């Protein structure tokens, strides 16, 4: 049984008396021990998916629909208190920007311990020791001193490791990492990604990795979900999706990646722009930029279909798309 | 951080000088010859000349200033023209009353204000929010003296809970302190509310929820703690505004104090008293702001490090 | 998910948009209504008052509110309602005039400080900060003591007490706009300092000032009352609310309505200005915590 199953997830907001759905038709499965990557451009709904799984969208007034099943339990019907006991201890979340994710007035070590003590029944002293050990494993130098520092005294890379420590300390079953390396230097990025892979494998954590970097996905993930304009357009095993993508958007994305040995000339790009939430096109949201779009695409929004094993795709013409 | 405190303390000295110069100059701008009030009927112009010489008023102004300053800082603040006693004694007598009123009012302003601000923010747009904000507005829309009179009417005259005037006991402090305190509470409540609402939107709040912390814990331990800092800043800066009402309140409730002393001296052109009172009141406000500044730097770890 | 408040320079929004958003803000509408009422009462005072505000009638002095005298009478038998209505006119004029003085002084000082920076800025800002920290009542009292009592003195004194906050606001706006790209562009086109300051920087700095000024009118009215209470303001028989309340203090236990009604009138008036100003703050997203 998959550890996480998401079915037809959507999030709705009421803005200026209009209902808008920045996230719709998201379905995926994750098995225990897997690394699932979610890729898409900014605004495609990746973070929103993560927030929805964590039950945090109500903080900003969003209403969730669909189902999010964790180890057989539907998270969406749980009370806030029950969700609190799951957050951090069973499903942990690492937010996007480490620069602003830490409370500036408390020492970083105390902030990790605060979370740990809430998530696991453990004394403060013991928690402190565990956290320092974990910080050491995350290659934070002089962990004991760093523990006493305030966020503003640390570099971006260190802050990111602190936030990662917060996510890992309670040995959660699922770790959702929202663009964990975007705010960091390229050199630090590689280190952090390696760290992730090590840690999650060592502790048998299922990793849900959100990023816009296809390269990272290719290196680290077992499965990938492709998001576009609030919809999931493709889902499947890495090997299949990368070698024979079925959705035109996925195809176009992969073609945009520069390769060594390419001919000189301009880089490929996808013409057009990502639509914003209030200007979603009718029908398939990708159709204005798709070379194969026809009247059906303009009228009807494609459903996310299950095809061949774990794969899913949301395109009326996916059969024609196979190379 | 102690270096920071030291630097700020040293700043107080030039401020004192600036204020002493300003007060001294302003007093001498006031029309009316102080000498005339000292002269009795039947004095001759020779008497006047002698008196002028005796008070050193024939010397150029800057010299008068330094003479006065030297005496002032050594404790000789001159003699009250009207009361015929040393001004320093009058200050020593009246200061404790004003300080008590001031501290009590600030206490009420701060804690009542924060309380109203937090509940308004936490229960945004509910009736709790609206009622708190109306109470807050009360402090701003009416003059302190009117509020004091009304409170006196209700609680002293009609209900008899508190005495109408006087000093020396806790009961006499309540109404005056509440009157001044409400004004400040209004300001603090509004700032707290705005600050709390802003803090809710900060990104670190998201992670707090993601860690599984409960809403009350997040609000009190994190949101409030962060929201407090701008509140302390504004509180320190607006101390003068908050205490402004205290001056008239002493009159309304017939309480002894520097404010009352200042006002009656102003009416009667008792310049030495006016000078001394103004300087004390001004320095009190500045020292208060200074203390608030230190508190702020202690509360915000980012500021502490700037001076390391 | 979290909105970033990036302080990007925006062109002044079209008036229609502002008006629409304003009308949606209920408190703001209430405030506007109150202000309009005040203006009407102030303008048409002589027509609205049932009796002459200075007509004395000792026989009916200190009468409680009744059908013929809705607010009662004062110690000289004058009708309180008429005097309160007249007082509206005085409060309005005092409020607007003194704020005008404050704004002019504040804008001038603030722009010079913000624009030229350096030593000038340091000196001006220190003066402004000191003035702003002082209780306005003390400053005003001193000034009235120097100039002499009376309504004109009060207006000037209040104007001189409150300028600092406008100076700070303008200085802040100019400092942040100074380095905006369009200013560099204008400079490179050869515009003189004067032109840059007046034609470009100032107009875009004025919105927080306008907001602060509306609330400032309320504060000025309150300060006038306090000064009047202390005997420094309008002289009898001028019915400024402050003077009326001062007069009524002696009769607090006999005829409290002499104090209650002018105070209530003031509360409603100042409330109107505050609600209006608050609504403006909400709409324009003006993040000026200090202008409260």
Characteristics of this structure?
heterotrimer; A: 323 residues; alpha/beta; 12 strands; 35% helix; C: 292 residues; elongated; disordered C terminus
Question: Count the helices of chain B. How many?
Answer: 14
**What's the assembly state of these chains?**
heterotrimer
Give the helix/strand class of chain B. mainly alpha
Largest sheet of chain A: 8 strands, mixed
Sheet having the most strands of chain B:
none
Structure report:
Chain A has 323 residues and is an alpha/beta fold. Chain A contains 13 helices and twelve strands. Chain A has helices spanning 46-54, 80-86, 98-101, 108-119, 124-137, 143-147, 156-168, 186-202, 214-220, 238-243, 248-256, 295-299, 318-321, and strands spanning 4-15, 18-30, 35-39, 63-70, 73-74, 91-94, 174-178, 206-211, 223-228, 231-237, 305-306, 312-313. In chain A, helix 4 packs across helix 5 (124-137) and helix 7 packs parallel to helix 8. The longest helix of chain A has 17 residues, at 186-202. With 308 residues, chain B is an all-alpha fold. Chain B has helices spanning 2-29, 34-38, 45-54, 61-73, 87-122, 127-141, 144-158, 170-200, 203-210, 215-237, 239-252, 258-267, 271-299, 301-306. In chain B, helix 8 packs antiparallel against helix 11 (239-252) and helix 10 packs antiparallel against helix 13 (271-299). The two termini of chain C are 29 Å apart. Chain C is elongated. By secondary structure, chain C is an all-alpha fold. Mean pLDDT of chain C is 80; it is low at 1-11 and 286-292. Chain C is 71% helix and 0% strand. Chains in contact: A-B, B-C. At the B-C interface, helix 1, helix 6, helix 7, helix 8 and helix 10 of B face helix 5, helix 6, helix 10, helix 11 and helix 12 of C.
């Amino acid at each position: 049984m998959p550890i996480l199953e998401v079915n037809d997830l959507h999030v709705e907001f009421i803005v200026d008396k209009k209902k808008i759905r920045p996230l719709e038709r998201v379905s995926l499965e994750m098995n225990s021990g897997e690394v699932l990557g979610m890729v898409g451009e900014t605004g495609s709904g990746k973070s929103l998916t993560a927030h929805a799984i964590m039950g945090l969208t109500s903080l900003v007034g969003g209403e969730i629909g669909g189902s999010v099943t964790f180890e057989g339990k539907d998270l969406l019907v749980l009370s806030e208190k029950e969700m609190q006991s799951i957050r951090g201890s069973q499903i942990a979340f690492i937010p996007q920007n480490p620069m602003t994710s830490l409370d500036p007035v408390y020492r970083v070590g105390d902030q990790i311990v605060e979370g740990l003590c809430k998530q696991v029944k453990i004394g403060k002293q013991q928690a402190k020791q565990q956290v320092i050990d974990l910080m050491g494993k995350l290659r934070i130098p002089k962990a004991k001193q760093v523990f006493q520092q305030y966020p503003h005294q640390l570099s971006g890379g260190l802050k990111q490791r602190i936030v990662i420590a917060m996510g890992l300390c309670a040995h959660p079953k699922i770790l959702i990492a929202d663009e964990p390396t975007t705010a960091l230097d390229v050199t630090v990025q590689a280190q952090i990604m390696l760290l992730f892979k090590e840690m999650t494998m060592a502790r048998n954590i299922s990793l849900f990795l959100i990023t816009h970097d296809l390269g990272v996905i290719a290196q680290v993930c077992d499965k990938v979900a492709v998001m576009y304009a609030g919809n999931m357009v493709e889902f499947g095993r890495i090997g299949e999706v990368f070698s024979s993508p079925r959705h035109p958007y996925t195809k176009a994305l992969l073609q945009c990646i520069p390769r060594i040995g390419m001919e000189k000339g301009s880089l490929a790009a996808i013409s057009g722009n990502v639509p914003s939430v209030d200007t979603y096109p009718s029908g398939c949201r990708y159709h204005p930029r798709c070379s194969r779009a026809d009247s059906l695409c303009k009228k009807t929004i494609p459903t996310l279909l299950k095809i061949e094993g774990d794969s899913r795709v949301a395109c009326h013409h996916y059969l024609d798309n196979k190379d | 951080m102690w270096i920071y405190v030291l630097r700020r303390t040293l700043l107080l000295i030039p401020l004192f000088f600036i204020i002493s110069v300003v007060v001294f100059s302003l007093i001498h701008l006031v029309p009316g010859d102080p000498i005339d009030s000292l002269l009795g009927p039947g004095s001759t112009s020779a008497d006047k000349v002698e008196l002028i010489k005796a008070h050193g008023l024939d010397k150029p102004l800057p010299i008068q200033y330094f003479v006065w300053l030297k005496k002032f800082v050594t404790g000789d603040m001159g003699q009250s023209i009207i009361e015929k006693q040393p001004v320093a004694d009058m200050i020593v007598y009246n200061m404790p009353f004003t300080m008590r009123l001031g501290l009590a009012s600030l206490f009420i302003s701060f804690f009542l204000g924060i309380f109203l601000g937090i509940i308004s923010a936490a229960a945004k747009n509910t009736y709790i929010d609206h009622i708190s904000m109306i109470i807050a507005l009360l402090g701003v829309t009416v003059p302190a003296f009117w509020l004091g009179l009304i409170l006196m009417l209700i609680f002293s005259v009609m209900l008899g809970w508190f005495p109408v005037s006087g000093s020396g006991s806790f009961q006499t402090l309540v109404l005056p302190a509440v009157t001044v305190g409400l004004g400040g509470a209004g300001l603090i409540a509004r700032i707290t509310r705005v600050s709390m609402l802003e803090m809710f939107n900060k990104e670190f709040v998201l992670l707090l929820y993601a860690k599984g912390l409960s809403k009350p814990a997040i609000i009190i331990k994190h949101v409030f703690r962060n929201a407090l800092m701008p509140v302390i800043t504004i509180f320190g800066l607006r101390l003068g505004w908050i205490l402004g009402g205290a001056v008239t309140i002493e009159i309304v409730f017939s309480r002894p104090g520097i404010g009352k002393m200042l006002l009656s001296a102003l009416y009667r052109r008792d310049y030495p008293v006016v000078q001394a009172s103004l300087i004390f009141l001004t320095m009190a406000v500045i020292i208060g702001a200074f203390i608030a500044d230190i508190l702020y730097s202690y509360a915000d770890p980012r500021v502490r490090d700037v001076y390391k | 998910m979290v909105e970033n408040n990036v302080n990007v320079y925006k062109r002044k929004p079209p008036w229609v948009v502002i008006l629409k958003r304003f009308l949606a803000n209920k408190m703001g509408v209430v405030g506007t209504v109150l202000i309009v009422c005040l203006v009407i009462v102030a303008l048409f005072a002589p027509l609205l008052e049932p009796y002459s505000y200075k007509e004395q009638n000792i026989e009916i002095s200190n009468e409680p509110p009744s059908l013929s005298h809705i607010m009662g009478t004062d110690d000289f038998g004058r009708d309180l309602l008429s005097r309160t209505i007249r007082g509206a006119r005085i409060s309005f004029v005092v409020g607007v005039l003194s704020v005008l003085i404050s704004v002019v002084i504040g804008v001038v000082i603030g722009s010079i400080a913000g624009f030229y920076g350096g030593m000038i800025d340091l000196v001006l800002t220190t003066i402004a900060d000191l003035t702003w920290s002082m209780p306005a009542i003390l400053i005003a009292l001193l000034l009235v003591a120097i100039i002499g009592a009376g309504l004109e003195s009060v207006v000037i004194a209040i104007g001189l007490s409150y300028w600092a906050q406008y100076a700070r606001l303008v200085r802040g706006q100019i400092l942040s706009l100074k380095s905006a790209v369009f200013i560099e562009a204008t400079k490179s086109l050869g515009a003189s300092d004067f032109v840059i300051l007046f034609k470009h920087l100032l107009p875009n700095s004025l919105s927080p000032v306008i907001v602060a000024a509306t609330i400032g009118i309320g504060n000025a009215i309150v300060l006038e009352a306090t000064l009047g209470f202390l005997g420094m303001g309008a002289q009898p028989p001028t019915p400024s609310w402050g003077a009326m309340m001062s007069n009524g203090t002696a009769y607090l236990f006999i005829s409290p309505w002499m104090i209650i009604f002018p105070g209530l009138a003031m509360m409603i008036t100042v409330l109107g200005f505050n609600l209006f100003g608050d609504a403006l703050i909400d709409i324009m997203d003006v993040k000026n915590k200090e202008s409260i």
